[in-house]
């Protein structure tokens, strides 16, 4: 493969010049997912300018410090969608300096394309190569195809720090607009139905900026004893489920949420006894744990939208990109997270949460129901549409100062109707087919930390005195969050 990055007579310029042409109150669509594949030079140039900016920024998922730190600290972002994962952006969202609205990942591209969310002015996206009417994304696809299609103007950052061989991973497929939208013609997770390029109207290309800056890598902590206990319980539950259910006659298809716990839980699959069944990943992000499974021969294939890797994981993949690309496919987020495909594939979804209440409702995003952490991301896409939906989390916060199994969550991201099982370091509560009062007892007995169980049982007894289908004593329930 040629290493040529810029093909044709294109409007190559520097970041400051490209940024100067972005209107001060622009709605700016940016590439990036899982803090990978986001533009770096133009957002940083905007942050360092002396202009009075009031931008609306729409990403595909989490992005790096150049956007959610530098631009936020420059007081340049007035409104932000759909996800943020940096302390300055979180603080600005919580104190009202930045209007932040969370969105489901699967429908975000449609929200932008159909005009129901924003009216975009410019798309700023990262690529490993660009031509007069095409580009090849870098380490993520996310919603870049939809954003490029929708924006009036396009700025492309060509990043020389990312190997051009990343093109081997990309499988770009664009769903048609309703009512002519047909089912996505994907029959197996490792099938390819598109090509590596995102095409666009050549007249939209306003600037090309060359960069040489890696994505900020993930820092996965070493698994704790709690992580390993959760992983062991998850492995035992899945092993039994695979033997019991006809859903897994030939293969096991899994998805894990991003982060250190999700990465650690992937390791549990290396020792799982699934017989001669293939293990396949169909989710959002490729993490280091999946590279380990691929290298060991344990994982047959992986489909996602982003390469969310540590520095060591990036080095590993870049050094042998073509080999990994034989088994790894990166798709647009409206394909990777598409409810119909999650259902078609029959995914086992494993995601985490801040807390789960006695009736199975999960809060993934808001501490004490008020302070947003990051966003819902794609967790609801998978939790609601998976064949088996699992919430895995430690039973307490920190050193045990606070239980994560609570009487009532003050914010609901995943309802009781979407959660099939809860796993902590103490055990597994299989909630399928249970009534609310049965769910409550299972979660207390099998998932709560032992020294919180009596308090939870006492709460449940008091709530039962009030009656109801899901009995609650509201004053007592909310006191757990004081």
TrEMBL record:
Q: Supply the InterPro entries for this chain.
A: AcetylCoA_hyd_C, AcetylCoA_hyd_C_sf, ActCoA_hydro, ActCoA_hydro_N, NagB/RpiA_transferase-like
Q: Which biological process terms from the Gene Ontology are attached to this UniProt entry?
A: acetate metabolic process
May I ask which residue range the UniProt record assigns to the signal sequence? none
Domain Acetyl-CoA hydrolase/transferase N-terminal: start-end pairs: 27-209
Keywords assigned by UniProt, alphabetized: Transferase
- Going by the entry's taxonomy, the superkingdom of the source organism is recorded as Archaea
Q: Domain Acetyl-CoA hydrolase/transferase C-terminal: where?
A: 313-459
One family name in Pfam for this protein: AcetylCoA_hydro
GO MF entries: acetate CoA-transferase activity; acetyl-CoA hydrolase activity
Family of this protein: Belongs to the acetyl-CoA hydrolase/transferase family.
Q: Which PANTHER family match?
A: ACETYL-COA HYDROLASE
Its recorded name reads Succinyl-CoA:acetate CoA-transferase
